[in-house]
Amino acid sequence: MKTVVNSARLFTRLGIAAAALLLSQQVLAVGTDAGTAVSNQAIVAYDVGTEPQTPIESDPLGNSTPGAGAATVFLVDRRVAFTIVEVGGAHTEVAPGDVQAFTRFELTNNGNAIMDFDLDALDLTSASPGGGTVHGAADTDDSVGPFTIRVANGDGITGTPDFATDLPYVDELGEEETVVIYVFATIPGTSPNDAYDNFTLNATAADDATATPTPGALDPLLTESAGADDPTVIESVFANTSGADVNGNATEGADDGFHVNSAELVISKISAVISDPFGSGKALPDAVIEYTVTVDNTAGASPAQNVVMTDTLQIANVTLEDEAYAPGDVLINGAPCNADFPDSEPDGCTYDASTGDMTIVVPDIAAGASATITYRVRISPL
Amino acid sequence: MKRLMSMVVLLALSVTAYPQEQGHLNVRTVVQKEQVKVNEKGEAESELVAADTVVPGERVVYTITFQNISEEPAENVVITNPISGDLMYVDGSAFGPGSDIQFSVDGGLTFAKATELTVTEDGTTRSAGAGDFTHIRWVMQQELAAGAQGVARFSAVLE
Fold first, then answer.
1. Contacting residues of B for A16, CB less than 8 Å apart
2. Which helix (H) or strand (E) holds A12?
3. Are A207 and A117 in contact (CB under 8 A)?
4. Is residue A177 within 8 Å of residue A233, measured between CB atoms?
5. Burial class of residue B2 (count of CB atoms within 10 Å of its CB; 0-12, 13-18, 19+)
6. pLDDT score recorded for residue B59
7. CA dihedral in degrees (A203, A204, A210, A213; nearest 10)?
8. 3-state SS of chain B?
9. Which of A156, A166, A274, B6 is 20 to 30 A distant from A359 in Cα terms?
10. Cα–Cα distance between A322 and A343 in angstroms, integer?
């Protein structure tokens, strides 16, 4: 029995756990780097008669001259494997007018070369396959966008987005490395409540011919090498889930979307007779009528802000009842407000008696809440 | 890569030392890739194809052929082949008609049958496995007659 301590071969056998302590983990985890020349050469020793001869080295084409052989070499090719996943598993909740709303993705390079990845965000529509459904919600709106792709600095997950540039590609992603990608969008002010605007973020593998990192530029998109070709060239074998796309490139996509939370207002206006000359409860000349306007945001998902209610009284027939809720002319959510014109007090109520135009600035109405504006008019006497 | 470079240097020196010497054997090493495909009967079949495209996890096959091109028989023919650090020998794949196949776990210093080798690590001794082998050696049991050809072969997985 022969016992030999061999630490050099130990690394490969112990696998990742031990190797991580001793060597660069990423190299072992995804295999030999693309572009590595793996060489092999046999040496044959022999005697003629009893005379030992000079050993002869092998050659790919055959060699019989001692010292003149050459190693049989092959070049390790590029195994193109990567994944892109959406982070969070849910739509990004946004409100109309949001700028720099963003979603997150993670791109991981599982291949044996440092590669670039071209990025492209494609808007899904209700006409897309499956209705453009993402996270269980079909696409209902295409107003969000344009999409801006940014690659995160650092881990990209904690805190506010941190990114270096607007580069729409990932530059030199190492083996077994993951990068966070943000997709930013501006949400139009007119986006309707409960709208879903979905999209797909596609990543396409790219690398230069020698699998050498060349930072600062997007490398050419890779195509899968087919057929017999040059063993001295680093070729690409697609090991990604989707294989080659219609352009022959390795592309993987992940879906995400924005869900718009807006206010959704329902306006109602009811009238009631407060008094009349005969106590009949009828809307007779000289009777006082109270209008109650309700602005209801019960169905909304966001507060309604900058709500302004306007009404134009028919001054030929009615006049606004002055000091109906002394010291105010109008009640907003029960608080009196002076409807003078022009507005001499910053209370948001104006009434122009010459035109009948009434303008009421309503405080913000929270999601699920409502605002009430009450005012009285007197029907012109006969 | 390092291994290749050091070999190139060695070769350059050797060539200078023995520029004209003609040996008795012609030695050739060819690398191919083992590809598994499903045949018409639905059975998995492996075939050897050119090693043009090799990615980690794939299996390559080295075939060493040696022919006696002299007029005299060659005695005590021994073929020694180091296993590249990027390759993992496939257990049981070494093949060589008429040869006693031996392995080394110490960088080619000593050789023995695969089953006789052990490795000690962290004070524990265990049987050597395919991943421990650094060299393979084929020891021909008979002479190689004038004009005769021999073959040695092994498989390895690219790590």
1. none
2. helix A10-14
3. no
4. no
5. exposed
6. 92
7. -20
8. CHHHHHHHHHHHHHHHHCCCCCCCEEEEEEEEEEEEEECCCCCEEEEEEECCCECCCCEEEEEEEEEECCCCCEEEEEEEEECCCCEEECCCCCECCCEEEEEECCCCCCCECHHHEEEEECCEEEECCHHHCCEEEEEECCCECCCCEEEEEEEEEEC
9. A274
10. 15
**Interface A:B, Cβ pairs < 8 A:** 225
Question: Is the distance from CB of A119 to CB of A205 less than 8 angstroms?
Answer: no
Instruction: ipTM value, please give it.
Output: 0.82
Q: For residue A292, give every residue at least 6 positions away whose Cβ sits within 8 Å of its Cβ, in sequence order, or none.
A: A269, A270, A271, A272, A372, A373, A374
SS3 content of chain A, % helix, strand, coil (to 5): 5, 40, 50
Residue corresponding to tokens 């966001």: A302
Domain boundaries defined on chain B: 23-158
CATH 1.10.10.60 applies to domain A79-260: no
- Whole-angstrom Cα distance, residue B133 to residue A198? 55
Handedness of CA A272, A278, A280, A286 (dihedral sign): negative
Chain B neighbors of A237, CB-CB under 8 A: 53, 55
Q: If residue A14 lies in a helix (H) or strand (E), which one and from where to where?
A: helix A10-14
> What is the helix (H) or strand (E) element at residue A10, kind and residue range?
helix A10-14
Nearest residue to A92 (alpha-carbon basis) of A254, A258, A256: A258
Q: Residue A164 — very low, low, confident or very high, per pLDDT cuts 50/70/90?
A: low
* A104, containing H or E segment: strand A101-109
Residues of chain B numbered 12-41 and touching chain A (CB < 8 Å): 14-15, 17-18, 21-31
CATH 2.60.40.2110 is held by the domain A266-379: yes
Q: Answer yes or no: do A12 and B21 touch at CB < 8 A.
A: no
- Give strand pairing partners of B120: B125
**Spatial distance between the Cα atoms of A208 and A220, rounded to a whole number of angstroms:** 6
pLDDT in tens, B10-41: 444 444 444 457 889 999 999 998 887 777 88
Burial class from Cβ neighbours inside 10 Å (0-12, 13-18, 19+) for residue B115 reads: exposed
The DSSP element (H or E) to which A270 belongs, if any, is strand A266-275
CATH of domain B23-158: 2.60.40.1170
Give pLDDT tens digits for B131-150: 999 999 999 999 999 999 99
Q: What tokens does A15 get?
A: 């696998």
Whether residue A91 lies within 8 A of chain B, CB to CB, comes out as: no
**Token pair recorded at residue B46:** 């492996």
From-to residues of CATH 2.60.40.2110 in chain A: 266-379
Residue A341 tokens, joined: 């014109």
Shortest Cα distance from A88 to chain B (angstroms)? 33
